[in-house]
């Protein structure tokens, strides 16, 4: 993979050189679209660039997402069996966040409306089969699966250097792997019912979090927890440092 600095990327995007850079990069990647690997019908995507949304995070919804691929942030891996989600620490962010992301947000009605559900009604499940393949350098932290409510994240799966764990609000939960090796494939699952959130790792129940919340939705992808700029700036972090995950399968299910 060609390593792009923030300066080169900006130059490419602003001068039309993006086609030249894209040719070199995509020659190393599979030709599949992400939608041919993952069912994206009830998701939208945020990426860490602001071409459509200057100063913000560009968003792709259905039906545009169905044919969308981006050689920097969202593309099929070389094997054509997973989608790479990649976010640089110098990327743009969504409103209210200081960290960049290449991440799916749960939707309903074939991607037309935002998902919004309650922990007290029905059963709600998110499953992700994935591997974390790269971390930022100075602050090697990344979130790779979330439940968000109407205000903030409720609970996430998070990797800090080599420690993979569950994090709730501002509290660390149980350790899932104390020595995670980049590239190792694993599965995680949230299952929410009766105000209880069960957290599974490689098919085994590891933790149950008791909390009621509303306006909820799932997220999956690469949400780096480092930045080279702005309110979350990490001193010494290069703006082309990045986090990346490969997702082999992701699905959300709701039983009311």
Notable characteristics:
256 residues, mainly beta, Jelly Rolls, seven-stranded antiparallel β-sheet, 2 helices, 43% strand, globular, disordered N terminus, Alginate_lyase_2, hydrolase activity, hydrolyzing O-glycosyl compounds
3D architecture notes:
- The chain has one domain (6-255): Jelly Rolls (Sandwich), CATH 2.60.120.200.
- The chain has two helices and 16 strands.
- α1 (6-15) packs across α2.
- The chain has helices at residues 6-15, 18-26, and strands at 43-46, 59-60, 74-76, 83-88, 101-108, 113-114, 123-134, 141-148, 153-160, 163-168, 171-177, 185-193, 196-201, 204-210, 217-224, 242-255.
- By secondary structure, it is mainly β.
- Helices cover 7% and strands 43% of the residues.
- A hairpin with a 2-residue loop joins β9 and β10 (163-168).
- Strands 1, 2, 5, 6, 8, 9, 10, 11 and 15 form a nine-stranded antiparallel sheet that branches.
Compile the SSE list and pairings:
Blueprint: H1 6-15, H2 18-26, E1 43-46, E2 59-60, E3 74-76, E4 83-88, E5 101-108, E6 113-114, E7 123-134, E8 141-148, E9 153-160, E10 163-168, E11 171-177, E12 185-193, E13 196-201, E14 204-210, E15 217-224, E16 242-255
Antiparallel strand pairs: 1-2, 1-5, 3-4, 4-16, 5-6, 5-15, 7-12, 7-16, 8-9, 8-15, 9-10, 10-11, 12-13, 13-14
Helix pairs in contact: 1-2
């Amino acid at each position: 993979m060609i390593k792009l600095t923030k300066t080169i990327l900006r130059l490419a995007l602003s001068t039309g050189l993006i086609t030249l850079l894209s040719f070199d990069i995509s020659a190393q990647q599979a030709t599949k679209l992400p939608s041919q690997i993952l069912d994206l019908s009830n998701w939208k995507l945020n990426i860490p660039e602001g071409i459509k949304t200057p100063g913000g995070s560009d968003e792709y919804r259905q039906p545009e997402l169905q044919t969308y691929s981006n050689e920097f942030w969202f593309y099929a891996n070389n094997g054509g069996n997973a989608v790479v989600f990649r976010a640089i620490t110098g990327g743009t962010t969504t409103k209210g966040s200081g960290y960049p992301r290449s991440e799916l947000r749960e939707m309903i009605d074939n991607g037309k409306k935002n998902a919004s559900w309650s922990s007290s009604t029905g059963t709600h499940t998110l499953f992700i089969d994935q591997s974390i393949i790269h971390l930022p350098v100075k602050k090697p932290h990344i979130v790779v699966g979330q439940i968000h409510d109407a205000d903030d994240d409720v609970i996430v799966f998070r990797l800090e250097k080599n420690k993979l764990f569950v994090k709730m609000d501002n509290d660390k939960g149980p350790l899932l792997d104390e020595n995670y090796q980049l590239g190792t494939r694993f599965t995680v699952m949230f299952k929410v019912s009766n105000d209880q959130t069960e957290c599974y790792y490689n098919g085994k129940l590891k933790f149950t979090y008791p909390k009621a919340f509303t306006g909820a939705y799932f997220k999956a992808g690469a949400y780096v927890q480092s930045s080279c700029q702005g309110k979350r700036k990490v001193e010494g972090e290069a703006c082309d440092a990045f986090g990346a995950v490969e997702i082999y399968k992701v699905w959300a299910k709701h039983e009311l």
